[in-house]
Design a protein that fits this description.
The complex is a heterodimer. Chain A is α/β, with parallel strands linked by helices. Helices cover 26% and strands 28% of the residues of chain A. Chain B is an alpha/beta fold. The chains are: A alpha/beta, B alpha/beta. β13 of chain A pairs parallel with β16 of chain B, so a sheet runs across the interface.
Chain lengths: 252, 315
């Protein structure tokens, strides 16, 4: 079985995010990293193809930049990558993204498409479901465990109260939560091999996907700021100040 | 009055609190029809009526994974009788149905909204961005507008009212896109739900290890509150995803939020900054969490928490 993993390069969340004047689009530096969420998807894909000897292809939409984030996924062990880069895709919403990813995914044979539940920088949280609808396959979402067996996939799907066991036939889209598996760190050999792996770069013209109706950011204003209260250094008795405040708020 | 569909899920015998919050907003914006997902019961219909629902479209997924068939049924109905707005929550089934429905209708989804307005044919939604430091107002160019609102954005309100009219929508066959729920597991949980608790105690990377989360649990139990976590320690596998508070996790608005070993990343702050009182304990005096804390304790959680738990036990 072949697995396709949707991944995203994002600005390092440890750095402050800034928006472009005029468009209010997120400014994306040359050096972007693999969204942490996607390391789980890549790892899941690698583990699922191991028994059958299939391939893992990563698919990503967005400005390539240095390609560092894509190389991270390849260094973990993914076989190749498809990158869709087109200036006309700047500021795309979730539906345009899903249409583009679906068109790219449709170029390959696959049993499973894996994605994170939401990206760290955009977090619309609906791309995997849209992708599944366009591909006309099931969307098994918020997976905390994934098993594939002869033409079917079964997951533990996170719910408010616990989890459901959900099953469907293949092909399917699965979205995975953080912690579904322990992502491996790239080895030195993996990093060296990644430099030789193929990254196929496609444009909108290659895919023929149609943009979704436009969404616009009308304005951005500062939110009402919450101000800091008292700050104390723990001298061994700081817990007393906490107890006093809890009592004052009448919760104890 | 613009036609508004409000998505409400059934939980036990009643509607979810999120569903009732959405219904309050939907009624304010227009002529609200509840789209109810669940087995249905006299109790749930009567509560919906009491909260002002006049009409209910009822869909029962049974053991079918709801997203595919529910989206198909709603797309079919919206094709013949489109509402102006479809208001749903930033929650598991809501997101799944919204995504599939939007793809079917060829329209976008306005996600993570904290408010929504209809502007005579158009829509405007507010979104807290950059960790809640800024509010972006967005708009979509084509309806029906599908909006996912964050939980706790609106206040549920019982206004009194009779039982609504109920129309059952049949779920169509969706062929290969079908999924089945074969088992349902309820995780044992002591105390209140994270989203509903009046006291929330959360832990972050500053705890140092998964074992130290036990301190958070003991304090949570002592205060009869719920326990939460940052994305960092969920990613690290210390605690399950269901405990995550933040942009990609749950939104909480408790009376008191106690942040233990949490630095205050943007991702986390957006999920808890509206707590009435915030208490933070962190070693790093420059941690961003202190800029929103009513009481900040610069100290080691491993020293402060045991003393705090002991002091509360002896009260």
């Amino acid at each position: 079985m072949n697995v396709i993993v949707c991944v995203k390069q994002i600005p390092d969340p440890a750095t402050p995010y800034r928006l472009e004047e005029g468009t209010n689009w997120l400014i994306r530096p040359e050096e972007q990293i693999l969204d942490d969420t996607d390391r789980y998807g890549v790892e899941m894909g690698l583990q699922l193809v191991e028994p059958s000897g299939g391939t893992v292809t990563v698919v990503s939409m967005g400005p390539a930049g240095s390609g560092q984030g894509i190389r991270q996924a390849l260094a973990m062990g993914a076989d190749d990558a498809i990158l869709i880069e087109d200036t006309s895709l700047r500021g795309s919403d979730a539906l345009t993204t899903a249409r583009v990813l679906a068109a790219a995914v449709g170029r390959r044979e696959f049993g499973l498409v894996i994605a994170g539940t939401e990206s760290t920088d955009g977090y619309s949280g609906v791309v995997p479901q849209m992708l599944a609808e366009i591909l006309d396959v099931p969307a098994l979402t918020y997976a905390t465990k994934v098993e594939v067996d002869e033409g079917s996939v079964t997951i533990h799907r996170q719910t408010v109260a616990g989890y459901d066991v959900v099953t469907s036939s293949l092909p399917a889209v699965v979205s995975v939560t953080a912690g579904v598996v322990e992502p491996r760190y790239p080895t030195f050999k993996g990093i060296m091999d990644a430099k030789k792996k193929s990254i196929e770069t496609l444009s909108m013209g290659d895919l023929g996907a149609e943009r979704a109706p436009e969404q616009l950011v009308l304005s951005i204003v500062d939110a009402a700021e919450r101000t800091a209260g008292r700050k104390i250094e723990d001298d061994g008795d700081a817990h007393e100040a906490i107890v006093a405040l809890l009592a004052e708020r009448k919760v104890i | 009055m613009p036609a508004v569909w409000v998505f409400v899920e059934q939980e036990g015998d009643g509607p979810t609190s999120l569903g009732l919050e959405l219904l309050a907003k939907g009624r304010e914006l227009g002529d609200a029809t509840v789209v109810l997902l669940g087995p249905g019961s006299d109790e749930v219909f009567s509560i919906l009526g009491d909260h002002g629902a006049r009409a209910v479209l009822h869909l029962d997924g049974g053991d079918r994974l709801p997203s595919g068939p529910v989206a198909a049924a709603l797309a079919d109905r919206a094709g013949s009788d489109p509402p102006e707005l479809i208001l749903m929550g930033q929650a598991y089934n809501d997101r799944d149905i919204a995504g599939r429905l939007a793809a079917r209708l060829g329209v976008g989804v306005l996600s993570n909204a904290s408010d929504v307005r209809l502007t005579g044919g158009g829509v405007e939604t507010d979104h807290e961005i950059l960790g809640g430091t800024q509010i972006a107002t967005a708009s979509a160019s084509q309806g029906p507008y599908i909006v996912l609102a964050r939980p706790k954005s609106f206040v549920a309100e019982a206004v009194g009212g009779d039982a609504p009219t109920i129309e059952k929508l049949e779920l169509p066959d969706i062929g290969a896109a079908e999924g089945r729920i074969t088992e349902t597991h309820v995780e044992e949980r002591e105390g209140p739900q994270l989203g509903e608790a009046s006291i929330v105690v959360s832990g972050g990377r500053g705890l140092g290890s998964a074992d130290a989360y036990e301190l958070v649990e003991r304090l949570g139990k002592q205060l009869k509150g719920a326990t939460g976590a940052t994305r960092a320690i969920v990613d690290a596998g210390w605690v399950p995803y269901s405990k995550q508070v933040g942009q990609t996790g749950k939104t909480v608005k408790p009376e008191v939020y106690i942040a233990c070993g949490i630095s205050g990343a943007m991702q986390h702050l957006v999920g808890m900054k509206d707590a009435k009182t915030i208490i933070a304990i962190n070693k790093d005096a420059d941690a961003p969490i202190f800029s929103i804390a009513d009481l900040g304790v610069v100290g080691d959680v491993h020293k402060v928490l045991p003393k705090l738990i002991e002091a509360l036990e002896s009260r």
